[in-house]
Amino acid sequence: MGAEVSVPARIDQRPRGPVPEGASAGSEHLAAVPRPSAKPGNRRALAGIPVVLAVLAVVCFASLAFGARPISFETLIAALTDFDPANGDHAVVHSRIPRTVAALLVGAALGVAGAAMQGVARNPLADPGILGVNAGAALAVVTGIYVFGISNLTGYIWFAFVGAAVAAVVVYGIASLGREGATPIKLALAGAALTAGLSSLMNAFLVSSQDTLDAFRFWQVGNVSGRGWDVILPVVPFIAVGLLITLLTGRILNNLSLGDDVARGLGQKVGLSRAITALGVVILCGAATALAGPIAFVGLVIPHMVRAFTGPDYRWILPFSLVLAPVLLLGADIVGRLIALPGEVQAGIMTAIIGAPVFIWLVRRRKAAGL
User: Fold this and answer.
1) Which residue has the higher pLDDT, 57 or 255?
2) How far apart are CA 298 and CA 135, in angstroms?
3) What is the pLDDT of residues 206-240, one digit of tens each?
4) What are the transmembrane regions (predicted)?
């Protein structure tokens, strides 16, 4: 009698589990698809929270101390704790507080908006500047100045909101044409094309009206200097609402990062999810652009820096972008004050100098456009 050969029973490799409500037929395997998780990076992220907060605090103090008139640390503390109106150094410190607060608000808005745009578009090149949102807001503000004579921030805000929303809808609509839909590459190309077109229209307005050019030229380059509390306070509620909406979309963005089909299989309403995220992004971009002008690359660079130590989980990416983006904008503003004394280089120019090499590196990455 020959030796018996033990044949292992066939193992069914199909993942098992309940089918989510609303899943299409044949999509049972979606129930077993793991959602994005950064558990190995959770410890790093938790350990990084006090570090990034400390860095933000240091940069804020540096923003108050450095400039055409440097302030010592002792004088800075005295100006903040025991203000003397007759002391010139104390007055300088207090004059820099609105500028620092403006950079904090604009940086937080652009950083969170950029991270959310990259998640909802599944495109690592997504950014309010690259996808045409900032250009739409800027053109709308120029239109308000040229056609309606708007000269105050309250008017800028509403025009910036409308322009940002229209630009976002147009870019997504153009990229959605065709069989493949809104792919990452098509979104980037549509955003670049729309930015070029809107910039041409904006220049046409500016060259035809000297008054419009004078009102717009310093705002156009992106700057946080010269912003008083009368300009900052009207924007705070909009940025607060935009941050609240967007920061709550972390789980939504995690599902969307798996692809539309998988997200639907997990029971998520993809269209509604994108609409909610887009609403938060438009509010943030409109408010930030109205306050400081079109500042580029902050929303592009920061999310990639954050992913290096948090992993792909947007529940971590969004709050870390909220903290680190102001660090970049404040740092750019500080450097701009120091490299051209007694004058200064606007923060929007400095962020472009920092962000452009990073953008080129991302474009040259073989897999960047397909993430």
Assistant:
1) 57
2) 15
3) 888 777 777 677 666 778 887 888 889 988 999 99
4) 45-66, 97-117, 129-150, 156-175, 187-207, 231-254, 275-302, 314-335, 347-364
Q: Name the nearest CA neighbour of 264 among 275, 254, 256.
A: 256
Distances (CA, A) of 344 to 90, 122, 158, 228, 304: 21, 37, 30, 18, 28
134: tokens are 């900032």
User: What is the crossing angle of helices 236-247 and 88-121, to 10°?
Assistant: 40
- As a whole number of angstroms, the distance between CA 220 and CA 218 comes to 5
Q: What is the pLDDT of residue 218?
A: 65
Residue 241 has pLDDT above 80, yes or no: yes
pLDDT at 184: 67
Cis peptide before 342 (omega within 30 of 0): yes
DSSP state of 68: S
pLDDT digits (tens, 9 = 90+) for 8-34: 444 344 444 444 444 444 444 444 444
User: By C-alpha distance, which of 67, 66, 109 is closest to 288?
Assistant: 109
> What is the torsion angle, in degrees rounded to the nearest 10, for the CA atoms of residue 334, residue 111, residue 234 and residue 350?
30
Per-residue CA distances from 320 to 78, 138, 316, 332, 364 (Å): 31, 27, 6, 18, 26
Q: Determine contact, residues 96/63, Cβ cutoff 8 Å.
A: yes
Q: pLDDT confidence of 325, banded at 50, 70, 90?
A: very high
Which residues have CB under 8 Å from 337's CB, separation 6+? 66, 67, 68, 344, 345
Compute the 3-state secondary structure of the chain and give helix, strand, coil in percent, each to the nearest 5.
70, 0, 30
Handedness of CA 7, 13, 14, 18 (dihedral sign): positive
Residue that has been written with the tokens 């100006």 in this structure? 79
Residue 163 in tokens: 């322009």
Query: How many angstroms separate the CA atoms of 283 and 243, rounded?
Result: 9
The encoded tokens of residue 83 equal 């203000």
For the chain, domains (ranges, CATH) are 39-370 (1.10.3470.10)
Helix (H, G, I), strand (E, B) or coil at 13: coil
Give, as one character, the DSSP assignment of residue 69.
S
Q: Which two tokens stand for residue 272?
A: 């509604």
